[in-house]
Structures are given as structure tokens and as C-alpha cells.
Amino acid sequence: MSNLLELDHVTKLYPVGGLFSRKSIKAVNDVSFSLDGDKPEIFAIVGESGSGKSTIAKMMLGNEIPNSGRLVFDGVDISNIRNRAQREAFMAKVQPVFQNPFEAFNPLTRVDAYLFGTAHRFAGANTLQEKETLSDQALQRVGLSMAEIKGRFSHELSGGQLQRVAVARALIPSPKLIVADEPVSMVDASLRMSIVNLFRSLRDELKVSIIYITHDLATAYYISDRVIIMQKGVVIESGGARAVLDNPTHPYSIALKNAVLPPDPKAASAAIRLRGVRAAI
Ligand code: ADP
Ligand code: MG
User: Fold this and answer.
1) Average per-residue pLDDT in the chain?
2) I need a labelling partner for 238 at 20 to 30 A (CA). Which of 45, 153, 170, 229 fits?
3) Tens digits of per-residue pLDDT, 194-215?
4) Ligand 1: which residue has its CA nearest to atom 20?
């Protein structure tokens, strides 16, 4: 049994207080967990704003390097990825989906160009025909098609559609891991569940693992296999999603849960059902 991804005592500091200050904050403080290579799962990282979630995402994507500890993906220490060939091979296997699709897609570039670019760079498509075929396959996976988005600009699509295009783009290289940083927080509430369900089908049908970063306990509870709860860079609770979110033990997780759900357990499960129903309509 080998790990797809392992974080081993990962710490990331950021300087605070200006150029000549020696002070720093621990954005991520001694975080360890691993994803099994043989069993795709949805792994949620939950926490309020500023808890270090995006910093972990950036390190998983190789965009930030930890100050101490290691991130090992598929047997390779991400900090040791140096040359372009190594970087391209890594990026094909670990793909991001970001929070705001309207920021991820330049308003002056047609959205299909992003798909074609990824198909060329990471999936060996050279002709327009090849790029269109690969893009269309990925779009079909997320409930869209090439015909629907061809030649369109981002402002001509809804947030939900655009986030689906972002997921489709991420699928083109056939990644092993998708790192989705708050992927539904900018999406209209009525479309959230459909995108969240899409992640589940990708796990089950494509066997891709998903890091699902969110501050929303309800969707984390609904789709995740495992969850960690973070506060100020520290993992304060971890385990099976149901176990952790049904019975949080740390005061912060209890407070987080009570902020979303009423404390009474009967009312709480009704609220989860309600949220699910409301969001699914
Ligand atoms: P989250 O995604 O959970 O909201 P972040 O990982 O973005 O949290 O941020 C964690 C902490 O690190 C915050 O205190 C934030 O202000 C700080 N931080 C994040 N990125 C930087 C940066 N590039 N420079 C300085 N501080 C940063
Ligand atoms: Mg963030």
C-alpha cells in the first residue's frame, strides 16, 4: 500500500510586520496526514478564513514550499521538483480548481482556449480536432459539451457553468488528485449540491482523489470520506467525516458546528436534511 500524498509535519511561516521585521506567523503548523494510493477519497479540509487551508493547497500544488516538513506526492518530494519536465509531469497528476471561476478565466480569453491549452500541454493533443475531442470528453463528464461553450467568454456563462468548465479543464490530464480550494463558495447556492455531487461521481467513476477545501460544514459532511478541521494553522480534529462532524470534541469544532447547525441533535439532523433539500432544488 503506497500513499498518493503524504504531508509529514508540514509547517509554513509567513513574515509579518514589514521588510525588516523578524516576526512571522505559522500559517500552517505541523500538519500531517496522508491519502491512500489505492483508495480514492474525498478529503475535506475545513476551517474558518485564515486557518491555513489555502496555504496547504498552494503547497500541495507546488506553488509554495514548506519551511519544514515534507509533502510527498506519488513517492516524490514536491520540494525537490526542479526542472520543467518534472514539473509538467507533476502538474498533470495534481490539478487545481479554484474558488472564483471568474478570476481563474481571463475575461478576454475564450474559455475553450483554456481547455485546448491544457489538452496540448498535458495530454499531447496537437491538432484542433484532438484538442476539441479531449475537451468535449471532459466537458461531457461534468454535464456540459463543447457545443455549449465553444467560442464563449467567461461572462457569457453562469458561475456554476464556469466552475464546471474549470473542473472539466482539470480532468483533461487524467489527474490522480484534484485540489479544490473553496470550489463552491462563489457558486449560486442552488447549484452547489450539483457541483459537490459531481466531485463524488469523479471519485467513484474516475477514481480520482479530491482535496475538498471549504468553510462549509454541511457540504463537507455530505460528500467527504475524511475530514480535518483547522484553526490557526493547526489540525485540531481529524477522522471519518461523519464521526468528526456528528461528534466534534474540540471547542472550536463545536462552535463551528453550532454556527451552522442548531445544537440540539434532532434539530441538527433535520437542518442537514433541509440544507441538502434546499440546495438540491
Ligand atoms: P485560509 O485559506 O484558511 O483562509 P490562508 O492559508 O489563506 O487561510 O492563510 C493563513 C494565514 O496565513 C492567514 O493569517 C493569512 O493572512 C496568512 N497568509 C497567507 N498567505 C500569505 C502571504 N502570501 N503572505 C503573508 N501572510 C499570508
Ligand atoms: Mg483560502
Assistant:
1) 91
2) 170
3) 999 999 999 999 999 999 999 9
4) 55
Beta strands 3-15 and 24-36, pairing class: antiparallel
Q: What's the CATH code of the domain at 189?
A: 3.40.50.300
Domain range for 157 is: 3-280
Question: C-alpha cell of 257?
Answer: 458546528
* % of the chain surpassing 90 pLDDT: 78
Is the whole model's pTM more than 0.85, yes or no?
Answer: yes
Number of Cβ within a 10 Å radius of residue 70 = 15
**What burial class does residue 180 get, using C-beta atoms within 10 Å of its C-beta: 0-12 exposed, 13-18 middle, 19+ buried?**
buried
Please tell me the residue having the least CA distance from ligand 1 atom 14. Answer: 50
- Whether 255 shows a pLDDT value over 50: the answer reads yes
Q: How far is the CA of 213 from the centre of ligand 2 (A)?
A: 8
Ligand 1, atom 21: closest residue by C-alpha: 14
- CA 52 to ligand 1: nearest atom: 6
Ligand 1 proximity of 264 Cβ (cutoff 6 Å) = no
At residue 270, the pLDDT reads 45
**Helix, strand or coil, per DSSP, at residue 153:** strand
Number of structural domains the chain divides into? 1
Spacing of C-alpha 36 from chain mean position: 17
Partners of 46 in the β-ladder = 214, 229
Q: Check pocket membership of 55 for ligand 1, CB cut-off 6 A.
A: yes
C-alpha 26 to ligand 1 mean position (Å): 9
